[in-house]
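Can anyone check this?
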Amino acid sequence: MSKWEWTPDTTWAMVGALRAAAAVLVALVAAAFVIWQVRQTRLLAQEQARPYVSVWVEVDKETRSTIELHIKNTGHTAAKNIKVALTPAHEWARGTPGMSFMDARVFTRGLPTMPPGMDVTLAMEFTSDIADQDPVIYTAVVTYDDSLGARLSDTFELDPQYLAGALWLDTHGVHHLAKSVRGIAKKMGVQSF
C-alpha cells in the first residue's frame, strides 16, 4: 500500500480546494495584468495621437545672419486655439519705433489651428546683434487644445545665444546659385535676365 491511500478524504478535499484557490488567484493576477496592459496601451495611443506644439530658436540655415523662433506642431493631430507667451518679452536690438517683435499676431491673438507639421518661423534677431547683448534666457509657454478639447500646456527654455562663438560651414543654396548665374550673364553681356 502506498502512503497516499492512508490519507483521509478531508485532506484530499482540502488539497483540491487549495488548488482551486491557487487557480483563481492566478486567474485574478492574469486579469489584473491584462487590465493594466489595456490601460497602458490606451494611454500610449492617446499620447501618440495628441498634438505637440514645440518652440525653439535656431540660426537661419541659409544665411546664418538671423536667429529664428520656430513654433511647430510635431504631433500627429491638429492643435487648436494655440497661444504662445514669451517671458521676458523680446525687444529687437535694432528697434523700429512703433514695431515690436511681441506685436506679431502669434503672440497677440494666437493661432486658430496648427495641422501636424505646420511650422511658423519668425526672425527674432540678427546674429551679429545677439552676440553683443547680455545673455537672456526666455521661457516660452504654449497652450493649445487637442481634438477632444483638452487644454494642453508645454514650457520651453530658449537661449538665442546657444551657438555664440560657433564656427559655421558655408552652405550654398538657391540664392547663391541665382547670384552666380546673374554674374555670369552680366559678364556675357546679357542685359535682361
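Reply from J.R.: I decoded it. The CA atoms of residues 25 and 31 lie 10 Å apart.
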